[in-house]
């Protein structure tokens, strides 16, 4: 069980998150939804200690998460990656297990449909292919917890289907998955629970119970954003 209790986090000049508490259980996928600037990416980074945590606790199986970093796989937003760095697909995936796991690397490449691209430079790939490479790296790591930041942003329909299949596979295998997303289609529908976040946790629960006008109005800054969000969600129900 991943337990986050009373988390406050941010940067030296400002706090971004306050009093955030939630849990993620094995075989559970939890989505993080909120407007730009709500702290979704900051939350994922704070769990890993990549941004300062001012208060609260983050534990995995009753032990501090920072002492168990090898059990956690992090997939950042594509905009945070230097795609000009001269590294191949296979080399990126090997980073998930410090290069000492050839069989796991090949299995991950196969599961993500990347075998034919493993000698290609990462910067030469399409957006969907690049995202699949980082999912393959996470898969090769053999993690128990997966933190994914906007995994479906800027990718094509084929890559989306592959990624959704991989997430369902991880879930069936007992993984704990936390996903920040602006994507309101199949990804949000397959969540066990959704967290509405805007600097604080507004609501958490089953998507149909949380994605309501009342909760969305408390989450988004303007009534127009609320209407767009609710209409977008309703179109997939």
3D architecture notes:
The protein is an alpha/beta fold and 237 residues long. The chain has a single domain (2-234), classed as 3-Layer(aba) Sandwich (Rossmann fold). The chain is 35% helix and 27% strand. It is built from 9 helices and 10 strands. It has helices at 40-47, 89-94, 102-111, 127-141, 157-172, 186-189, 207-210, 213-219, 223-234, and strands spanning 2-11, 14-24, 28-33, 53-60, 63-64, 72-75, 145-149, 176-180, 193-198, 200-205. The strands form 2 sheets. Strands 6-7-8-3-9-10 form a 6-stranded mixed β-sheet, sandwiched between helices. Helix 3 packs across helix 4 (127-141) and helix 8 (213-219) packs across helix 9 (223-234). The model has no long low-confidence stretch (mean pLDDT 90).
Distance between the termini: 30 Å
Query: What is the CATH topology assignment?
Result: Rossmann fold
CATH architecture: 3-Layer(aba) Sandwich
SS-derived structural category: alpha/beta
Query: So, the CATH homologous superfamily?
Result: P-loop containing nucleotide triphosphate hydrolases
In total, the number of strands is 10
Instruction: Extract low-pLDDT stretches.
Output: none
The CATH class name reads Alpha Beta
Computed Rg: 18 Å
Order of helices and strands: EEEHEEEHHHEHEHEEHHH
**Spatial order of the strands forming the largest sheet:** 6-7-8-3-9-10
Tell me about the largest β-sheet.
6 strands, mixed
Mean pLDDT metric: 90
């Amino acid at each position: 069980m991943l337990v986050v209790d009373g988390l406050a986090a941010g940067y030296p000049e400002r706090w971004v998150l306050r009093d955030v508490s939630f849990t993620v259980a094995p075989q559970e996928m939890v989505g993080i939804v909120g407007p730009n600037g709500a702290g979704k990416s900051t939350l994922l980074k704070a769990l890993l200690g990549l941004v300062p945590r001012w208060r609260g606790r983050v534990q995995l199986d009753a032990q501090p998460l920072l002492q168990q970093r090898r059990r956690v796989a992090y997939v950042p937003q594509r905009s945070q990656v230097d795609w000009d760095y001269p590294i191949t697909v296979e080399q990126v995936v090997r980073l998930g297990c410090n290069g000492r796991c050839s069989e796991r690397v090949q299995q991950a490449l196969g599961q993500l449909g990347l075998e034919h691209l493993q000698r290609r430079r990462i910067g030469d790939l399409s957006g969907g292919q690049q995202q699949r490479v980082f999912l393959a790296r996470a898969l090769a790591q053999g993690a128990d917890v997966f933190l994914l930041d906007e995994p479906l942003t800027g990718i094509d329909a084929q890559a989306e289907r592959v990624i959704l299949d991989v997430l369902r596979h991880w879930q069936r295998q007992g993984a704990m998955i936390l996903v920040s997303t602006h994507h309101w289609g199949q990804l949000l529908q397959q969540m066990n629970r959704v967290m509405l976040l805007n600097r604080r946790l507004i609501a958490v629960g089953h998507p149909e119970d949380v994605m309501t006008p009342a909760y969305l109005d408390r989450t988004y800054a303007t009534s127009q954003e609320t209407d767009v969000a609710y209409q977008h969600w309703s179109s997939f129900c």
